[in-house]
Amino acid sequence: MKCALCQNEDAVLCESHIFPEFLYQDVYEGEDHLYYAFSSNSDERASRKRKGVYEELMCRDCESIIQRYEDYASRVLYGGTQIAVQQSPEMITISELEYARFKLFQISLIWRAGVSKRKEFRNVDLGLHAERMREMLFSSSPGEPYEYGCVLSFLPNAHELMRRMILVPDKAPSKILGHTCYRAILGGLFWAFFVSNHLQDFPHREAFFSKEGVLRVFRAAAPAMKFLQQSGSDFMKANSEFIKQINASTAAATKENNVAERKCL
């Protein structure tokens, strides 16, 4: 079968994770790594799943290429490498990062979603950009900061909620400042992936990860707030019956525990 990264037609493909396991660490429940998978699409039923989202996508050698980017990003986001952090009312600024590895990690997230055949990612259509991203990832060439730039932000008042949820990339209903954008919530952060041929004209290029290794994470950016509110509304509509079942099961379990405790007394 064909490897999505190196394009080898006779490759033995691995079960590639679309998003790395470390982004799920605050989402999993218990030792079995179970989590609730919800969708904002009312045609899809909510379900309880084990582990993250996998697909036969890349060969072992290409998995190791992506793994290098992931390992570094994991240490940046969850500790394990030296970084400098400064906070201001508007943002958190992280510096002393390796430009190539972290930039390629960002690109790898939207690229994998774009080339995946899983239904969860059917709204991610990269078109010809998928090939350009593939070349960048395979050759370890991060390009300019504006090439497939990504803007990160978080909501201080909802950070704990965001840490415990995964929302896969979803295309913005309209272009942002003339550019196509995919939004996602991963690892407690709001990710805005810009996919465009003319991002060199983007008026806020300083928001992208810089070649100097400076990453800005903005507080309560307006697009993140709007996306979270809309996603919450869609989520509740699409999963109302399933949520009722969870609440009913929880109430029944609580009642049984209370009865058992009274008997012990």
Strand content: 15-25%
Main beta sheet: 7 strands, mixed
Question: Shape from CA axes?
Answer: globular
Radius of gyration from the alpha-carbon trace, in angstroms? 20 Å
Distance between the termini: 63 Å
Number of helical elements: 6
Strand order of the largest sheet: 5-6-11-7-10-9-8
Mean pLDDT score:
82
Give the fraction of residues assigned to helices: 25-40%
Q: Topology as H/E string?
A: EEEEHEEHHEHEEEEHH
Q: Please identify the structural class as seen in this structure.
A: alpha+beta
Question: Which residue ranges are poorly predicted, with pLDDT under 50 across at least 5 consecutive positions?
Answer: none
- DSSP, total strands: 11
Summarize the structure in words.
With 265 residues, this protein is an alpha+beta fold. The chain has a domain at 83-264. The chain is built from six helices and eleven strands. The chain has helices at residues 60-78, 99-115, 129-138, 159-163, 222-238, 240-264; strands at 13-17, 34-37, 47-50, 54-59, 84-87, 91-95, 150-154, 167-171, 180-186, 189-195, 215-219. A seven-stranded mixed beta sheet has the order 5-6-11-7-10-9-8, with helices on both faces.
Q: How are the secondary structure elements laid out?
A:
Blueprint: E1 13-17, E2 34-37, E3 47-50, E4 54-59, H1 60-78, E5 84-87, E6 91-95, H2 99-115, H3 129-138, E7 150-154, H4 159-163, E8 167-171, E9 180-186, E10 189-195, E11 215-219, H5 222-238, H6 240-264
